[in-house]
Amino acid sequence: MLYDTFHRIPVYSAYTFYIKGKTQRSDASKIEPQVVYGNIVYLRRQTSDSVELPCACSDIGARVFAVAVTRRWLDPIRVLYLHAEADRGSPHYAYRGRIFEKWDVGKQRVSVNITHLRGNDTDIYQCVFFHDSSAAGYGGVPGVVEFFLHVDPDEPCSCYDYKPLVYSLSAAVLLLFVCVLVCTGVFWPQKQPDNQPIYEEMWGKVPVRSAKR
């Protein structure tokens, strides 16, 4: 027997199929996306995938007038309610726009499709059929099987955050640029101004007198 390590419940067991008189033993070392364990169907999906939940009434011959799809474990809520006289079902607000149903009233079967799965959709789903049988007393009769839907949540990003690296490199480049400027100002030979002696400068400013007086 294998267990789901995320929720710690059994999801697979080495059981035997009987097909046309032949015995075929399942491979217990392989976990399939859909595995039957007792009356629970184990479904594993990824985030944003879709899943189909085919439900059938366990009370054959009953006149069903309503069907409810519920979650009964992590978050016990009514996911969807269908009435035979209604055109469409009434979904829970968390499933609006991503749950669709197909109800075959004559065969007492309901197929529910949930799209754009999220990590918090993980739960055990159950279909409950309501009929007016005197034995049921207008109560709900569970479907033939339940569905344990396991949605793998989004994996956290393992990539390195490059913002600190970019900031560090920018600071290093700026510091290097400043150092280059400082070194250039200190070691670069500056051109000295060509200063003439002061007496020559003064001599050059003496006005030239006329030879005639």
TrEMBL record:
The keyword Transmembrane applies. The chain crosses the membrane at residues 165-188. GO terms for molecular function: signaling receptor activity. Keywords: Membrane, Transmembrane, Transmembrane helix. GO terms for biological process: adaptive immune response. GO terms for cellular component: membrane. It comes from the Eukaryota. Gene3D superfamilies: Immunoglobulins. PANTHER family: CD7, CD7 ANTIGEN-LIKE. This is Immunoglobulin V-set domain-containing protein. It comes from Electrophorus voltai.
